[in-house]
Amino acid sequence: MDSKVLIIIPTYNERENIEKIVKQITGKGFYLLVIDDNSPDGTGEILDKLQITNDKLQIIHREKKLGLGTAYIQGFKWALQKDFDFIFTMDADFSHSPDYLPDFLKKLADFDLVIGSRYVRGGGVRNWPIQRKFISRCGNFYAKTILQYSVNDSTSGFMGFRRQVLENMNLDEVKSEGYGFLIEMKYRTYKLGCKIHEYPIVFADRIQGMSKISKKIIWEAIFLVWKLCRQIK
Ligand SMILES: Nc1nc2c(ncn2[C@@H]2O[C@H](COP(=O)(O)OP(=O)(O)O)[C@@H](O)[C@H]2O)c(=O)[nH]1
Ligand SMILES: [Mg+2]
Hints:
This protein has 233 residues and is of the alpha/beta class. Helix content is 42%, strand content 18%. Strands 3-2-1-4-7-5-8 form a seven-stranded mixed sheet, with helices on both faces. Strands 6-9 form a two-stranded parallel ribbon.
């Protein structure tokens, strides 16, 4: 691998998933940065042990649960400082299969942002209850309509950026959390005039551990979409 590729994964209570995901990603030759918010379940300690024998693994330990958005922003800044060329975001819970990473990377030769998308032909969701499917579909249709852009899966947490996108974005202005953060990153990228590709993925619901996304975060995202289209010109 000639260019430097970094995968960033934020974690909060991912004890059941962390060792396996670290091994799969670094086993493919990628660098991995995990940002752990002092998970009460001991995820951080497991990471420290894994790091002793894994030189592709980097860890940022934060004091307390500070949210997915700030974790990624901190990770992006770290990646830019360390001269990575391609920077990916992923969940720890295997909803985003690491097997897609090589194909995403190929696409980044032609695009600035690649989104792992459930809502393009060939993509989909496995193991979600019908209500969750419905909410996600409607939320993404809503975001696409209000923001007047072409992205079908605004709330996907699986993204690959060329470093230039993150360099050109004012990362300190990105203040949203959860789904809002995921939407904001895509919309800001679009507003920068970048080329975006949605790569079809089958999203598998987590088998181990619990989701940390709350109802409050969904409501925040709904208001954020309005704010974004008024504020970002
Ligand atoms: N560092 C950090 N990671 C978080 C936080 N909230 C969620 N995560 C991680 O972000 C990823 C996405 O969260 P998840 O619960 O899977 O959300 P869902 O897929 O929408 O249900 C997972 O890897 C979580 O462990 C947080 O406050 N801080
Ligand atoms: Mg998840």
